[in-house]
Amino acid sequence: MPSSQLAASLVAMRASLPRGLIKNDIGMLFLAESLLAYITVDQVIRKTMPFTPFHMGPGAAIKAVTGKYFSLMVFGFAQVAMDVEPLVRILRGDSVLHGFSHTYVGALLIGIISLFIGKAVSERLLRAWNVMVRFRYTRWLVVSPGITWPAAASGAFIGTFSHVFLDSIMHSDMQPFSPFSASNGLLHIMPVGWLYLLCVFLGVSGLMIMLAAGMRNK
Ligand SMILES: [Zn+2]
């Protein structure tokens, strides 16, 4: 919203307020500044910040609750796999960035890929991690390198389906139910800034629970 439009709507808002509610101009100025700051942050986030890492927030919260039944590493692999298509489309300069990968049918397919390739890649990374921390004072960080199939499957499919769900709220070029429907009922059900904050909140809470529980299973 341009600032002139914002100023006009604030004047209109002030006229509609009961007399004496905002006693002086400082209150009004504070309100205007807060609104302007919120709009600016929201615009900056929309334009510049990639959402992929924020998907890890809900993943951490799910991990904190489900423990060994959910692989956070395979979940992370699924997030990256989901955003390969938009990345390629950004580089190509396409007008639609979120195509087949950001549909529930696409999520099913990328979930299957993440299950098999993500599990193998994650186990390889865990083995490399164990080699890195095999020394005397870091030996306590060694983990079992195996990921069970149920944990890999929950990580992969919760990963891809939650990705489509969350992205549906913020991307207007998405058709999550394609090829069955072109609708997206979730679009803008909450401001994008709130969605980022929610993901950060879930991530921090999940990490704190995991740390408190001393959880070390991937
Ligand atoms: Zn995405």
What is the strand and helix layout of this fold?
Elements (H helix, E strand, L loop, with lengths): L2 H14 L8 H24 L7 H11 L5 H11 L1 H9 L11 H29 L16 H22 L21 H22 L5
Helix pairs in contact: 3-4, 3-8, 4-6, 4-7, 6-7
Bound molecules: zinc ion.
Question: Top keywords for this entry?
Answer:
mainly alpha, 218 residues, binds zinc ion, single chain
Structure description:
- It is a single chain.
- This protein folds into 2 domains: 3-47; 52-213, no CATH class.
- The chain is 65% helix and 0% strand.
- The chain contains 8 helices and no strands.
- Helix 4 packs across helix 7.
- The longest helix has 29 residues, at 104-132.
- It binds zinc ion.
- Residues 82-83, 86, 102, 163, 167 line the site of zinc ion.
Q: List unreliable stretches of 5+ residues.
A: none
Distance between the termini: 44 Å
Overall shape: it is globular
Number of domains: 2
The average pLDDT value, as a whole number, equals 87
> Structural class of the helices, strands and pairings?
mainly alpha
Main β-sheet, in a few words? none
Contiguous helical run count:
8
